[in-house]
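Troubleshooting entry. Yesterday's outputs looked truncated, so today I'm pasting the complete records for two proteins to confirm everything comes through intact. If either block looks cut off, that's the bug. Protein one:
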Amino acid sequence: GVQTCALPLSGSFDMDTRLFSVDSRAGLVDRYVATIAPKDMVVYYKAFGWPLTVTAGEIRVDSEGVRLTGVCAENGDAQLELDGTVDVGLQSVEIDLNFDARNISFTDALHETVPWRIRRKWNDIQPSGSFDVRDGHISFTWQSGDKQPTWNVAGRVELHDAGFDVGARLRNVTGVVTVRGASHGPFSDMTL
């Protein structure tokens, strides 16, 4: 079956919740809509390794799933803007997120969050500096009967004053790298 995970939250938010019944062929069906407006709400998801303070946007939760619109979050100088959907049903889970991230530094904390194959390459090239991700996209799909989920990622990585060890140390690297990756299995098995 589908496993869910809780996201530890702290901070504050405004929430408007509406409960109503809809007439259908099966009789009255209860529905709900909750609209959440974060105000310095801190979300910590262990797999990402660091907390995000959500400062703006709208999170709409209803009978169909979760919709994120204009969600802005930060961790130190790093900033994230996020839109997308999370749909959890009895037979499937689908997550489809679009994002832009700015001022992300190549840190030990980030090193620990990336899939192991990427972490292994990271150890070889010893990156430094910072980057932005533009037009980022991540999707997760699991259907009943699938042994493993399917992950897809894509985006443009804009390097800022980066450094890499490729036999010789490269410094002050600036440029854009287009990234695409997929995994039919755990996110940790992602290949780019």
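Protein two, checking that the full record survives here as well:
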Amino acid sequence: ERSGNRLEHRFHMLKGLIRLGSYRNSSEQIVDLDAAEADFLAAAKYAEHIDNSDRARSFGLAGWAAYCRGDMAASEGYLSKSLELNPLDLTSQFDLTKVLFHTSKHSSAMERFASLIRSDFHYGLRAAADPDFLANRDRVVEVIDSYRADLQGDLRKRATTYEALLDGKSRILQKRGVDLSAKANFFDPLAR
């Protein structure tokens, strides 16, 4: 009757995931956020010299468990530790941004969110359905609009470079019989 190797970090991560609960797993006999947080911290401890990405993920999950319990200070600490170990963990970055908005640390949250949507714009869509982000809708829209303006500027810059190259080659292309009338269709939408 062994329940698993207690020194194996994945054992503790699995226990934590089960105790964290889900849409299908909401039984009061199973879900225990305090125990889930402790399991994730044990997983991080045992993964220390074995798997740094699992260690980072364990801290991220401990941060989520702490958030679900309502302990924002602990959540922020765990998520920061997760990102210290793996700065590319976008899930922890999203969760930390969520905590920062929840605790009214708006400038830090907006910085993180700007970095997050530049890494993966899908997090902008995810934010549109999240209560912590919706409570700060104007700030979120400001970050998204800034990103959109940056993208449009980058696209204009590339189009200008392309147009200069095309203008330089237009005599050669016309001699070869290339129809350049479609050029206007490419550049007109960028002028808007």
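Both blocks look complete. Sanity check on protein two: The chain has a mean pLDDT of 88.
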